[in-house]
Write a structure and sequence with these properties.
14 helices; 935 residues; single chain
């Protein structure tokens, strides 16, 4: 037992709290879990899933997803208790339990409905206990005891109202207003104490203690109850409890206590009553009103608040200091020196005694941006926006103010010199008479030098974020640079940095990590170190050497540190799975300071946190598949059985599988990897996603497998889920059998059809061949007819030629006779010889055309198919002489040739032709011969 502290401790306590480093707090606001503000009771099942009695119903959290189950009668759920595979709850005039269905959702079963006649009007059930085979449901009016084996109920109903019930020392206790403390024994009430302490104080919690009980009261602190007597149990917070009003209390696994108050947050005490933490809203809690407290199996402290839920990672190797007031600002540098912790921020330089309860003290003259803190030969150098300061205890002395100072670098072989990188170049500090002073600026180089290092040969390398890497050589006096060169490799990069570690100079950017080859004065890429930036992990190239053979750097999802191998020159990589989203470090300005052999401080945008590497242990909890949902296209999701696998329709081929590891540590980063056998051949990339979505899966059998890891730990188990996407009705086995039968019938039908087709085709070919033969015969006949016609035409031509020859012969005969006649006539006048006249008459008879014309006419008609008849029919007015002229013209004879035949002159022939044209009434443009030849 302790002696109660005085009022002086109460005054000093706020000062202690201001500088307190706390366990990480995970905050869950109502907007995150989508339920009511208030959470009245908390419990956990064997799978490590959390359950909360919430204003809106029963709230479940599996580490990845929140699920709200509405209250059975739409009232506030006041109590929850997990026992085995049942989740018991109590609310307004109702209590019962929930069981998990095949689809992993909870279903409610009412118990109070069996004893409706025993339920008091307006009764609410505020507490639930499990004792052996019985479940105890406590309201403010009575206690209902339910036998889970027999299903029977019994009731304890005191005369006055029940303030609260408790479970301790393997017994069930309850406090009755104005009566005292009772115990349930053999199903009946037994008075334990009616002493003033039990009557006048509202008891909040009862715990087992050596040889008795330990009671926490609402306003008067702890009391022990041993052998029937009460005695105060003093703690460091007794005075504060008087004004804070305790509402809930939980004994922790280490025998300490977590005390939740109505207005002053939560107190964490040791088993002896010493205050370890006092956490309030201004120190990280979401609310100061603590309605419920629960410690889970991993010793995380869950706090049900008046407005939200918080989880306090009491066993985390990480402790955080968060500045909610903004007076400290973003931490850019830190240093532990002579027992004092110095913190450099954008607000200035602060310090406090390390591991003390002091608040941070501002160091005068340092208001503004602090870039770096550097300890050398027992002296602290502060790189500041205003220049360079030397820090002695709580005083800062300026030694350089020409420009801002980024940082400091030792000079090999020159212990009395330091190089400092400034906004405009590099300058030299020198130790003279044990005092550090500014000596000179290095000439011929005026670029900003945030990150730089110097080699043993006085070659200086500077990383400029917007230009790349410079190199120049310093003279022996460290006054002038020469050979200023911009290196081709490596390239410039955002948030790039350059640092010396283990006598090697390293450069880091998005392209990877490079190491300087001093012999060739060039950088080469280190594949092993650069691997930390693969898979889009790069966020910052800031490299930090902590002075303890560790090289630190930060990536998107991890903090890495490399240590020197005890055998060989290779660096060994170590990984801390804290993502950038949780660290809150300023990109490009990450900083790490070594506080002890295992504790390191990392600055953040609102303070800092410390990591104890020795306590950094990662154990993988079991991964489990929590939910399987399917849906048809553009339809709502359907929840499916999880444990026994599933069989889904062909159109239910969109499936979502949710999985989780119930890990509640703020700085533990769980990664998942899955494969869907039947669709994928390779495992997916490690990712923090807790759901896998597959769309438009083809019919087939599938096995989904998922595993989880934390950092480099091996997966503890692999969760599997088998399911089948059925074929559509038109593609199942029965349908395939039908298709096979129909196919066979179709083949037979096609065979028959083809057979008939080819038969008809053959018949058609025969008919076509016959037709072709007939056509051939016709063609032959036509050919024969053609030949006959040609022969006839030839005969006609021959006859025409004969006719023309005979006509010409006749013409020649007539011409000859005419000549003879003319000669005889010329001799006539002189001699009137009768013989001559007789000859002349004979010649006239021979020249007479009647007989020759008749012969010619018959021959002409035979040769030219009754031409004379045709033209006579066309022109009835034609005379025989006209027809004779037409015949001669038909033979294409000239006028000169026709004249002898008609025994007239050529002129007379022309006159006849003219008259013939008139009789035929031919147009002017049509010739007589052309017309006659066309008939």
């Amino acid at each position: 037992m302790k002696i109660k502290s005085g009022f002086i401790w109460l005054l000093l306590l706020p000062v202690f709290l201001f500088g307190q480093e706390l366990s990480p707090i995970v905050k869950y606001n109502p907007s995150i879990y989508n339920a009511g503000n208030q959470n009245w009771m908390i419990s956990q099942d064997s799978q490590r899933f959390m359950f909360f009695a919430n204003n809106d119903g029963l709230l479940e959290f599996n580490g990845s997803a929140w699920t709200l189950y509405a209250s059975p009668n739409e009232t506030i759920i006041r109590s929850v208790k997990v026992v085995g595979d049942r989740v018991y709850t109590g609310c307004y005039m109702e209590f019962g339990y929930w069981t998990r269905e095949a689809n992993n959702h909870l279903k409610y079963h009412s118990l109070s409905s069996k004893i409706k006649n025993r339920i008091v009007d307006d009764e609410q059930f505020w507490n639930i206990f499990a004792y052996e085979q019985w479940m105890i449901f406590q309201s403010l009016d009575q206690i209902h005891i339910y036998d889970t084996k027999t299903g029977k109920f019994s009731v304890i109903k005191p005369k006055h109202g029940i303030l609260k019930s408790f479970q301790a020392n393997n017994s069930i206790y309850y406090q009755v207003a104005n009566e005292g403390l009772y115990e349930i024994e053999n199903g009946k009430a037994k008075l334990v104490s009616n002493q003033p302490v039990a009557v006048n104080n509202k008891i909040v919690a009862i715990f087992s203690a050596d040889d008795g009980l330990l009671l926490q009261t609402q306003q008067n602190g702890f009391f022990t109850f041993i052998n029937g007597s009460f005695a105060p149990f003093f703690s460091d917070v007794d005075e504060q409890i008087v004004t804070s009003s305790v509402y809930s209390c939980q004994q922790l696994a280490d025998k300490g206590f977590a005390i939740g108050t109505v207005s002053n947050g939560v107190f964490i005490l040791s088993a002896s009553g010493k205050l370890k933490y006092h956490i309030t809203q201004d120190k990280g809690l979401s609310n100061n009103t603590i309605l419920s407290i629960f410690e889970d199996v991993d010793e995380n402290l869950w706090i049900g608040l008046d407005n939200g839920i918080n989880c306090l990672n009491l066993k985390s190797p990480i402790r955080s200091y968060s500045d909610k007031t903004g007076s400290l600002g973003t931490v850019y540098a830190s240093l532990l020196h002579n027992g004092k912790l110095y913190i450099g921020t954008n607000q200035g330089l602060f310090c406090k005694t390390y591991n003390s309860n002091e608040s941070f003290q501002f160091i005068k003259n340092t208001k503004g941006q602090v870039w770096s803190l550097f300890e050398y030969q027992g002296t602290i150098f502060c790189g500041h926006d205003s220049g360079t300061f030397i820090v002695r205890d709580v005083n800062a002395i300026p030694i350089f103010s020409q420009s801002g100072t980024w940082g400091f670098v030792k000079v090999p072989g020159k212990p009395d010199l330091l190089l400092q990188g400034n906004y405009y170049g590099i300058s030299v500090l020198e130790k003279v008479n044990n005092q550090w002073k500014f000596r000179n600026k290095i000439s011929k180089f005026d670029y900003s030098s945030k990150h730089f290092e110097i080699s043993n040969s006085r070659d200086v390398y500077i990383s400029h974020e917007y230009k790349g890497v410079f190199r120049f050589h310093l003279d022996a006096n460290f006054t002038t640079c020469s050979g200023l060169t911009m290196l081709d490799t490596p390239k410039k990069g955002k948030n790039a940095s350059l640092i010396k570690f283990d006598r090697n100079i390293y450069y880091a950017s998005k392209e990877g990590i490079y190491i300087l080859d001093d012999a060739h004065k060039s950088f080469r890429r280190d594949k092993k170190l650069s691997a930390v930036f693969e898979k889009d992990e790069y966020t910052s190239g800031k490299l930090i050497a902590d002075g303890s053979d560790k090289l630190w750097l930060f990536s998107k999802n991890y903090i890495h540190y490399f240590t020197l191998s005890k055998i060989g020159n290779e660096l060994k990589k170590n990984t801390i799975p804290i993502p950038l989203s949780l660290t809150g470090s300023m990109l490009g300005y990450e900083n790490v300071a070594r506080l002890s052999n295992s504790i390191y401080l990392i600055g953040t945008t609102d303070g800092y946190y410390t990591i104890n590497l020795n306590d950094l242990r990662f154990k993988s909890n079991s991964v489990s598949i929590t939910n399987v949902t399917i849906n048809k296209l553009d339809e709502e999701l359907i929840s499916c059985p999880v444990k026994d696998g599933g069989e889904f329709g062909y159109d239910e081929n969109n499936i979502i599988l949710n999985y989780t590891v119930p890990e509640y540590n703020k700085y533990i980063y769980t990664e998942y990897q899955y494969i869907l056998e039947g669709l994928q051949e390779d495992w997916s990339k490690w990712s923090a996603k807790t759901a896998a979505n597959f769309k438009n899966l083809p019919p087939g059998d599938y096995v989904f497998k998922v595993r989880a890891k934390i950092a480099n730990s091996n997966p503890k188990n692999m969760a599997t889920y088998s399911f089948t996407i059925c074929k559509p009705w038109y593609a199942n086995n029965f349908a395939l059998s039908v298709y096979l039968i129909l196919g066979i019938l179709l083949v037979l039908y096609v065979h028959k059809a083809y057979k008939e087709y080819y038969r008809k085709k053959e018949q058609k070919l025969i008919e076509e061949n016959n037709l072709l033969l007939e056509i051939k015969e016709l063609e032959n006949e036509q050919q024969l007819m053609k030949l006959k016609n040609e022969q006839l035409s030839s005969d006609v031509d021959s006859k025409n030629r004969e006719l023309a020859v005979s006509t010409m012969s006749l013409m020649k005969k007539n011409e000859l006779l005419a000549l003879i006649k003319d000669d005889l006539k010329r001799t006539g006048p002189e001699s009137d010889d009768k013989s001559i006249k007789s000859v002349i008459n004979t010649i006239n008879k021979s020249i007479s055309e009647d007989n020759s014309w008749t012969i010619f006419k018959e021959a002409f008609n035979n040769a030219d198919n009754d031409f004379l008849k045709k033209i006579k029919q066309a022109h009835p007015s034609l005379t025989p002489n006209d027809l004779r002229l037409c015949a001669y013209l038909r033979l294409n004879l000239s006028s000169k040739e026709i004249a002898p035949l008609l025994n007239i002159s050529v002129r007379s022939v022309e006159v006849k032709r003219y008259r013939l044209r008139k009789k035929m009434d031919l147009p002017h443009e049509t010739g007589v011969v052309e017309y006659i030849l066309s008939i």
